[in-house]
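step=predict obj=glucose-6-phosphate 1-epimerase n=329
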Amino acid sequence: MSSEKVLSSASASASAPLASPHAELCRGINGLDKVVLRDPRGSSAEVYLYGAHVTSWKNDHGEELLFVSSKAIFKPPKAIRGGIPICFPQFSNIGSLEQHGFARNRLWTIDADPPPFSTTSSSKTFVDLILKPSEEDMKIWAHSFEFRLRVALGPGGDLLLTSRIRNTSVDGKPFSFTFAYHTYFSVSDISEVRVEGLETLDYLDNLQNRERFTEQGDAITFESEVDKIYLSTPTKIAILDHEKKRTFVLRKDGLPDAVVWNPWDKKAKAMVDFGDEEYKHMLCVEAAAVEKPITLKAGEEWKGRQELSAVPSSYCSGQLDPQKVLHGS
């Protein structure tokens, strides 16, 4: 990208040094700061400090795995359309806050001194970011918190996001929130995609006033607009792209729900930051906690984790072990 420029630590608005030797602070679109993660095996990811927003995840062949709209507006206060927006402290627009909360359009900082992350990954390619509420944030959501996010590339090219939200209230006040990793996957053609792992589950249909239904199909396929919140979902969901012969595997922890969204043609045309035909090349499948808000007492911390892998789609979700696939064992 022509606007990309490496920042010295002295000139970086992010201020804190990067702990990982495989992370680099750069200028991105419109001069916004971003961190580029590069795994020695060839995979990469990009994270904008604006929104702690992952805008790119590429495999070791350099293929882009996330969708970002060609019309995305990289200019605050507009959230970036595509990638992985963070929805906090609310998902959707139920309540007094702006839709999907404010974390996705705030400027995060690099976390210089994060508490130890207990993780099964041996990744040395990561960045730690932190968000604390400003005085303006406290006026619209009067709760004191620290939101720590680690974005990491695993040795097999998988992308890991670990969120830790702590109630830092000094007056003992609890708070509740809903949450989602609003992940936009890049797909060849939405009509060639199916989602496995959500069959027979109950869901809330946002297109029908959140009425509750039970999924009937053997797998989820797409022929029209969909906006559903699946409840009590398994820890693993597979998104199969027949044309690309690729399967995305979403593994999650601490996030019981899963949102599936595609705007289809009419809604796509109504969005200024989304191309008219781009709905054909994206699908949102989101690890989320929506139906039952998470409540934290003062001093308590919640952790929610999402791990994304891309594997050959001769495998189906019922027999899929991405670690075996990725490591050839």
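step=describe
The domain at 23-327 is CATH 2.70.98.10 (Beta-galactosidase; Chain A, domain 5).
step=end
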